[in-house]
Amino acid sequence: MNNFLTFDIEDWYHSNFKGVDLSKIDINKTNFENNVSRLMDVCDKYGVKCTCFVVGSIAEKFPSVIRRIHDRGHEISSHTYSHKLVYSMSRNEFGDDLRKSKDILENIIGEPIFGFRAPSWSVKEENLQWYYETLEEEGFTYSSSVYPAKTFLYGIPGFKTNPHFPEIEGKQTSIIEFPVPVFNVMGKKIGFSGGFYLRALPGFLIEHILSSKNRKGSSTFVYLHPREIDTEQERLKLPIVEKLIMYWGIAGCEKKFSHIVEKFAPSFVRIKDYIKAESD
Ligand SMILES: [Zn+2]
Fold it and tell me: How far away, in angstroms, is 14 Cα from ligand 1 center?
């Protein structure tokens, strides 16, 4: 059974919460390089190859960091150029942003990239058609952008929960979607394998859900951001709920995360390798 270890490679100020004014903060104060190399060290320690969804503007700022991730054998994919919410852009704006990120990343690593992840799972049912069409036009193969349940921030309820080629208005797309893994609690689907959920839930529970999904034949992915292991980071001024979502559980996160990586190490493959093996 294969799973995927994934990272969204961005910095502490890449938040899509309302009211964050980047012109008023010093984005040069950063532990980005150190955070990324700690995550890559965890991968190396357990012999895991991961998939990194990289924000294009961060790659422009730190090309050598992205090259090092690639040189260590990990997959580079796109997480937009600007980290804007997909549904906040027009189709053309999204296409331009996507192309820009792809060009920058491919220039840095000298190889084509295949995958895309939307910031904050920001695709909606009503823009899925142009979303997948734009990915096709720009030469992408897969997406990891749909949260298949509704939350107050994002999500598409009723979306299939396993990797698949989504059907939009009766037509199957050529893009494989890897939806966010969810589990059922009292009739509700909830995330468990990354970000806030990984920081908030106990490690044994996350490992238990991952194992039981695998036993039932479902591939899952784990996801984390470099800032989620950084207790020393600069902090954004946020309202209380957003603050909890952003910063809860950071102190114990690296240890919990490393344990999960250790336990599931043999199952983790790069997404592009999984797709290649499935299509052969
Ligand atoms: Zn992001």
Answer: 7
